[in-house]
Amino acid sequence: MSVGLLAIVDDVLAAALKASAKSAGVVIDDAAVTPQYVQGLTPARELPVVAKIARGSLINKFVFIIPVALILTAFAPWALPFLLIGGGVYLAFEGAEKVTEWFGHHEGHKEEGARDEKSLVAGAVRTDLILSTEIMLISLSNLDPNMGFWMRLATLVVVALLMTVLVYGAVALLVKLDDVGMKMEGSSSSGTKRLGTAIVRSMPAVFRVISVIGTVAMLWVGGHLIVVNLGEVGWHAPVDMLHAVEHALEPLGAVVTWLGDTAVSAVAGLVVGLAAVGAVLLAKKALPRKASAAK
Questions:
Q1: pLDDT tens digits, one per residue of 164-205
Q2: Cα separations in angstroms, 21 against 25, 80, 135, 254
Q3: Helix 2-21 and helix 117-141: axis angle, to 10°?
Q4: What is the pLDDT of residues 69-112, one digit of tens each?
């Protein structure tokens, strides 16, 4: 029996690694997006907040994503593209909102929210819900269709745990690098001290780069979800254009093709996101007028 159990565990691990391989790009995006949410916190609160976000990510995966994905895959597969389009629009909106902040547009509540741990965690967990949904659905789509229900469930559980540990372990390491550098600065070794100083001085620039990468990642993943799933529900023009770019760039190599795919998806995400930001701003302006008229 123990040999049979070990064989099952081995099969589950092998299936999990194979299924999660194609979601590596989204995993990197998730790891790039999350550090933005802990910027501005005191060092003592960084790891606790990362832990709260990681816990929220596990709740997303185990309470919402895996059960809903399995149920919809079995009974209403037609609904999945619409859910992914909605998630893509949300990510595009988040990314576009950050782009507008780069050009000087700031919502009044942003600064206050940056100091509110509950708001930070809630925002990070909402974003994680979309990214984790794509990770899990990509993994689900790469499972053997002949796999039994319990084997499929066990594989998704392993993928969920693996991805959460990978993403939030990397995030925890990133946010504590400056503390590591400060400890190295107190070393008696001059080489260690210089390396520590270099780490501490470079971290502001590192986080600025991560913030930009995270924003581009939200636009890219959001745009890609929208473009691909619009094709799934019947509007093929956007995804046909994406495929045309990919085919045109294929002779230049896989890296250039990937960059072209990313650029097209990010532009699509930015266009949709800016439209969503504009719609939200118009709605906010219209609501006070309606309230005044009602009074």
A1: 999 999 889 888 888 888 888 888 888 888 999 998 899 888
A2: 9, 21, 10, 16
A3: 100
A4: 899 888 998 998 898 898 889 889 989 998 998 887 665 444 44
The Cα–Cα gap between 232 and 138 comes to 15
Given a contact cutoff of 8 angstroms between Cβ atoms, the answer to whether 32 and 210 are in contact is yes
DSSP for 25-84, please give it.
Answer: HHHHHHHHHGGGGGTTS-HHHHHHHHHHHHHHHHHIIIIIIHHHHHHHHHH-TTHHHHHH
Cα–Cα distance, 78 to 71 (Å, whole number): 12
What are the tokens at 255? 């890296």
Contact present, 45 and 117 (Cβ < 8 Å): yes
Which residues touch 185 (CB under 8 Å, ≥6 apart)? 193, 196, 197, 200
Comparing 40-49, 80-89, 116-125, the range with the smallest average pLDDT is 40-49
**pTM for this entry:** 0.77
Q: Token match 């790009």: residue?
A: 25
Q: How confident is the model at residue 4 (pLDDT cuts 50, 70, 90)?
A: low
Query: For residue 188, what is the DSSP state?
Result: S
Q: Which of 39-48, 63-72, 177-186 has the lowest mean pLDDT?
A: 39-48
Q: How many angstroms separate the CA atoms of 152 and 108, rounded?
A: 46
Cβ 40 vs Cβ 175: under 8 Å: no
Give the whole-angstrom CA distance, residue 89 versus residue 25. Answer: 19
Could you tell me the two tokens for 86?
């909605």
Candidates 49, 67, 84, 61; CA nearest to 163 is 61
